[in-house]
Amino acid sequence: MEEVIVLYPNAGRGHLDSMVELGKLIINHYPSLLVTVVISGPPHEIPTTLTYTQAVSATTPSITFLQLPTVTPPPITSFTEETIISQFFEIAVLNNSNLHNALLNVSKTSKIKALVLDLFCASAFEVSTSLNIPTYFFYTSGASGLCMLLHWPTLVNDTTRDFKAPNTTINIPGVPPIPSEKFPLSAVDRSSKVFRYFEEVGLQMTKSAGIIVNTFDLLEQRALEAARGGKCTSDGSSPPIYCLGPIVKITEDKAEHDCLTWLESQPSNSVLFLCFGSGGVFSAKQTREIAIGLESSGVRFLWVVRDPLPEDGVQSNPTSLESFLPDGFMERTKTRGFIVKSWAPQAAILNHGSVGGLVTHCGWNSILEAVCAGVPMLAWPLYAEQHLNRVLLVEELKVALPVNESENRFVSAHELEMKVRELQNSETGKCLRDKVAILRKEALMATNNGGSSRVALAKLVESFRNGFSN
After folding, report:
1. Is Transferase tagged as a keyword (predicted)?
2. Other CB atoms closer than 10 Å to residue 313's CB: what's the count?
């Protein structure tokens, strides 16, 4: 029977993309293996998902996709960080029986050598254990976030203190101390579902056959030393950690995008790219403030804009750009700005020679894509582990400037204007660009033959084939 690796991402499009890139990496270097990617419902947010999976299957026949039946999680009545994160976990829980049946069907024609789980699918660990399938986790963010997850059960059990209390600092091995208010409220609220889900993830990870991390050794040496050395767990143990990164999507589809055509007419390193990921939705007030800051800065920009959430947090129907941007903004900036609604080919944009900076939500994929393209950043974290990522970018790697927020996490037009000017037009910005250029070379070295990430990949595949059990 043919050997297959089953990958199980959560219901977010970004996580699907990351799992597919992991699958490509595995079969490109070990073509005797097959990869099956399990897709959970409800449908992914981006409507082009079906087109995307069909294109992957056409160009990479060794990767197939298996759609689970649609499940119906509790409806989201108010779009908050907690409700969105909770739904990802709940979809996986509801899909456990569907996944069980799917794995049984796959095993009729292929030998499943491993199941690789997204962290939001940690509940599936029980399914794979019952079927005696070696189970790994793919942590799509960096090693700092991994340290947090591995340490979370210890943190929860060693103290009864209220993490929400003012002036509370959370100490995690391998990571600088972080004020609790920088974490999502749901992650530090002991009464929330998300708090309990994260505790479960940490426990399941420590029981797994290994953790795959989308990073490379030289990028996060401090955090990796803590995680591998057992400093994050109560018993000092750690499953094998395989750093395979950077795993990024360097090439996009070959369709022409208007924004890429526009970039062709811009000077080298002159354009500031603003992109906040699929979950980066601002209020109308904050969106207007960004526009004012960009206009005042005088820089060239390419901005991916999503429909803002109303102040009550309830999702609304799509609206026109003019309805929530300042009056006349698009007309006044048309000679130096380009706005894209909802989505743009980020990797292709970052690798274009006219792009000189990225304003990012500090999502890990975006960080790695910027590092691989040699583009310095303005760090504006929004949720999840992104505040940890900003600490890494600003304080340890020194390839980004922080965008400072007020107490209610609002960023003023003046703050954005000043940071944009500093990144694009100052000696500080040049220093950041020089540092990220060094990281770019180190990333290339890690993924070359004999590099740390390629050595780790060989060890991972050897582990798959040896059939380590949980």
Report:
1. yes
2. 14
pTM: 0.90
Q: What is the DSSP string of 244-255?
A: ----------S-
Q: Which segments of 254-363 does DSSP mark as H helices, in order?
A: 258-263, 284-297, 329-332, 346-350
User: pLDDT tens-digit profile of 363-403?
Assistant: 999 999 999 999 999 999 998 789 889 999 999 999 999 99
- Supply 116's token pair: 């690789």
Rounded to whole angstroms, how far apart are CA atoms 334 and 102? Answer: 51
Tokens of 107: 């095993």
What is the token pair recorded at 280?
A: 């980066």
For residue 222, the surrounding DSSP H or E stretch is helix 221-228
Amino acid residing at 465: R
**Structure tokens given for 427:** 């000696």
> What is the per-residue pLDDT across 188-214, written as a single tens digit (0 to 9) for each?
788 888 888 999 999 999 999 999 999
Q: At 54, which amino acid appears?
A: Q
Residue of 427, 405, 400 whose CA lies nearest to 416: 405
Token digits for 219? Answer: 């990028």
